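The protein record filed below.
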Amino acid sequence: MVADLTGAKNFNYSETQKIFEAAQDFLPINGTDYVELYVGNAKQAAHYYKTAFGFQDLAYSGLETGSRDKTSYVLTQGKIRLVLTTPFDATSDIAAHLTKHGDGVKVIALWVDDAYAAFETTVSRGAVPYLYPETLSDQDGEVRRSGIHTYGDTVHIFIERKNYHGLFLPGFEALKTEYHPIPTGLKYIDHMVGNVELGGMNKWADFYARVMGFANLITFDDKDISTDYTALMSKVMSNGNGYIKFPINEPAMGKKKSQIEEYLDFYNGPGCQHIAVATDDIVFTISEMRKRGVEFLYVPGSYYDTVGERVGIIEEDLETLKKWGIMVDRDEEGYLLQIFTKPVEDRPTLFFEIIQRKGAKSFGKGNFKALFESIEAEQARRGTL
């Protein structure tokens, strides 16, 4: 069973965090090590994420480094490492993944102290092995890693780096180009959202609780996340220190096709719907990203008419937030600012959330209706609502 510790409306996140640490954290995770996307053209994708999002060069693996089956570009910004991988072999598993899903997240890598123990612990609790424990080494030391399957074709790889001093992983060299757009202020991955089929939410929430020691931080039902036309349900799973948070979404019954169903149709199954990345200055980040061509969901001007009475006093100028389409919500511990990109590829699948937390630990429940109406407007334009 999944431990649901949300309790009443005055639920205290700090106290619950102590419960997580004391009771469930049998798989210590230090943070997100990297996120790997399989893409059709890694060179061009790297240029896009550098230009539009402000990522910086870090490492490269390809023909020049002895990799004969694929090429990978590693980009970084703040604590975020983004890996973009393209296959050379049309019969490879990577090529099959691209044919089925299009560009999307394959690997959510987790930084651990002991990758071998992480594998043994999770497999003993029911995880399906993806990568059996192995050690990679070069002149900079060694990296131990292992991996397990999770929802759809998404996997977790456990990375142990304590004996490695290189840039990224053995087999990679420094990526050096003459193109260096300035960063946009992205700091770290706040959370990553998985979309699963109807009936799959509880299954995968239980997986994270039973196999990885996560707890159910908060649950949203179809009354919390709904419009006149569509609805979904979500359980937010968190590890003990709160560094890793995975909301798991499933569709709910509605008059029309929900965004989750649209995602499942075009991705051909469950997968990572969006990556939420944190910033300390969302106005700067969004103004920069808009200048560089990133498209964001439209927020109607009427949304801002009630922000003051709903959220209370905030430090930011409301007219500035309205100009850039940034939404605001508050919980018991503070408030947050957030905005969502449109899908970053032609399939209406993967997108990004930009978030700035001013004490808030929640996920913008007060913005759900406006957000989902904006998504529905995009679905209607695509003819998929």
User: Anything to note?
Assistant: Residues 368-382 form the longest helix (15 residues). Confidence is low (pLDDT under 50) at residues 1-11. The first strand starts at residue 31 and ends at 38.
